[in-house]
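Field reference: sequence -> structure
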Amino acid sequence: MTCISLGKQGFLCGTENDYLIVASDKVWRFEWHLRLGPCTLHKQTGDPIKSPPSDSPFWHAVTKWDEQGRRTQPGKGGTWAIWDSRRKVKDQTKAERKD
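Structure field:
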């Protein structure tokens, strides 16, 4: 679990699980924080790393994954975040999504 210091406000801790996602032929490892979204992790150590720039393919992939219901599948190396760049997203309220 990754915890991020919020200074005097305390800590924000992530999920027990981390995910792998493919974006433009690169594999990214990340945790999903319900309030802050993804936190990118080092592939081998699992330590938090600097977030990629805003134009990185990672952001497109993880945004689509979130919009499409955060589907996952166990596989080689861990739990894979499954998303489809061609899939249209139906209008969903937050209550319908799995959080």
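Note: The chain has a mean pLDDT of 84.
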